[in-house]
Automatic annotation (TrEMBL), chains A, B:
UniProt keyword Coiled coil, yes or no: no
GO biological process, one term: isoprenoid biosynthetic process
Protein name as catalogued: Polyprenyl synthetase family protein
Domain of life of the native organism: Bacteria
Keyword Cytoplasm recorded: no
Gene Ontology molecular function: metal ion binding; prenyltransferase activity
Length: 375, 375
């Protein structure tokens, strides 16, 4: 079983609906960009290709949980119609994309999901066109990289703006709009603070410890990937504040489990499944819970010399991976994941739960696919 | 006479009002950031210091023109009260700040207005704290620079989000909100497209010619600095679409004049006045109308060898500056500025103008201070 089954098999049609919405958005933007010249229009085209390869996990989660609420509680008065819901859900995918774009600028990554990311695509196209002004090959490559990264940074700004525009333009009640804007603000601040903490630890500006690593994982991904779509589903389908908060809490547990699993997969997973450079986390010196645990063990002496080495060989990578497993770091992180999943399941199974049965089912099914995730 | 007299002498109190609004915003954000750790809170503090050194040209322009409309047309029904107006005006300063932050990331700049910019400030603080992990001085400096630029990029995202939040939360009629959101979107897309074009020409990805240089100047600065506040003033004070469009057009002329003057000042102006590195444009190989003109003359042979040289000496800088003056580039750009100013003055003096006398007075006074600008 691969991927998020609940959001894949059950919702292939939904996923297409989100993709159609996003395609229309990018088609309109690409067309409007022509007036600024072919390079700017091309930037939009490349961005569209990049977005449409995604799993659409977050928007599908929002729509699925929204619908589960309405199926179970016919008395709910939703804040928006189906069309509005799909627009808002697509905006969450755009938010994810904006974060990826800026993370890639910060990390200097050129690949994502088996293929060049937006920066990598711009770089490829740029390498195909001859230039004259630069003197050395290195200077030429630096300039092309600068051009490609600038595209990633600027597209991130455009997409981030589009997220806000979508929410600000939707016809919601004033209260619902403010609640949704609060949630968006909270999600963005958490993600940015998490990225700041992540880079601070990697760059040696913030001291590394396991507690900070877990906080960072929570902030950087869990909030916007799980808390945001789940809470938005409760909010937009017109549920009580109590139900909103319970779903938000479930989202925080799921989100942390998801992020920790991401860290495990990128070190121990199969390259064919996740499509990332198999040792990129080690090469970048990425501070994860795995590394924080390993640092406390005697095996660290075997890992430290290659950790953060940009010229890491495959042999060194394999050795470090084996050491990370033997020292107990892998087992420890698997335990943390199980712990978060338990907390989530307990939360939705409590007798006093404010969540209806069908919403619980969606979450349980999400947990199950998360446990079997390979990419 | 220094600076924008109309927006300085006449509006010292207004400027303080905007600064107070911005101070409150940053104080609240800094306080809320504590929960994420001292480094994130410090980022907000440094951002506040950076913003509050600004001239507040754009928000003052919005409020001044809004008030000129109301003084002259008692029958206007404004879309917001004074408090809302100040909030929205401050959001335009935040938009300017977000653009500066990301431009500085892209350009690698560390200074602005006689002092370190946000990236420069983070770098200074980072240099004061000892580290251990890095081996060479160069590697250490690269890592510190990465940390500082990440701060600039992430703060840009936070501030850009805050701009949208301010507009989305304001209690406006649905139509006024949509119009304001359209205007914001147009301003952001223009600025980003302008920056993309600017970098594309510098990096050799887009062919350079005078027409593109002028388009770039218009897009990158004129739209959000002049068209946005002027049109927003007409919109928020409840004027006709005709008046809005006329002001937007006046803003485009003023904005281009302003940007061209900026280019002149940074090459020919006094370092003590503008506070930038006196030869940074030459050193960065910044493609301006001055350079585009010079390229077409025989003097270019004297300028080209040092244009874009990161190790440009003061002597070479002075020689290049003299050549840019002698070849007629300086005179040509002064002529373009005078042409834009004439077009603006003609527009507001037309008998069929939709703009009231007092609004015309503000614009004329702005033109006058622009003509005498030194920084």
């Amino acid at each position: 079983m691969t991927g998020h089954t609940v959001l894949r098999d059950g919702t292939a049609a939904l996923r297409r609906e989100i993709e159609d919405e996003l395609s229309s958005f990018f088609a309109a933007r690409t067309s409007a960009a022509q007036v600024y010249g072919p390079e700017f229009a091309r930037l939009w085209e490349l961005a569209a290709e990049s977005v449409l390869g995604g799993k659409m996990l977050r928007p599908c989660l929002l729509v699925t949980v929204f619908e589960a609420f309405l199926e179970d509680r016919a008395s709910s008065s939703p804040e928006c119609d189906r069309e509005g819901l799909v627009r808002l859900a697509s905006a969450i995918e755009l938010l994810h994309f904006a974060f990826l774009l800026h993370d890639d600028v910060i990390d200097g990554d050129l690949m994502r999901r088996h293929r060049p990311n937006l920066i990598g695509s711009i770089l490829e196209e740029s390498a195909a066109s001859p230039r004259s002004r630069r003197t050395s090959v290195e200077a030429e490559q630096d300039v092309r990289l600068h051009w490609a990264r600038t595209g990633g940074l600027l597209m991130g700004d455009l997409v981030l703006s589009a997220v806000h525009q979508t929410i600000a333009r939707e016809r919601l009640s004033h209260d619902a709009r403010l609640s949704l804007l609060d949630l968006l603000d909270h999600s963005i601040v958490d993600s940015v603070a998490g990225e700041h903490l992540d880079v601070g630890m990697s760059d040696g500006a913030i001291r590394i410890d396991l507690r900070r690593i877990l906080t960072m994982s929570q902030l950087k991904t869990a909030t916007y990937s799980f808390e945001l779509p789940l809470r938005a589903a409760a909010l937009l389908s017109g549920q009580s504040r109590e139900a909103q908060e319970q779903l938000a809490e479930a989202g925080r547990h799921l989100g942390l489990a998801f992020q920790l699993q991401d860290d495990l997969l990128s070190v121990f997973g199969q390259h064919e499944d996740h499509g990332k450079d198999p040792f990129s986390d080690l090469r970048e010196g990425k501070e994860t819970a795995i590394i924080a645990y390993a640092r406390m063990t005697s095996s660290w002496a075997r890992i430290e010399p290659v950790f953060g080495a940009s010229d890491l060989s495959e042999g060194d990578g394999l050795t470090a991976r084996a050491a990370l497993s033997e020292c107990g770091a892998e087992r420890f992180v698997r335990f943390l994941i199980a712990d978060e999943i338990d907390a989530c399941l307990q939360l939705i199974s409590r007798p006093e739960s404010a969540l209806p049965e069908r919403v619980g089912d969606v979450l349980r099914s999400l947990v199950s696919s998360l446990e079997h995730r390979r990419a």
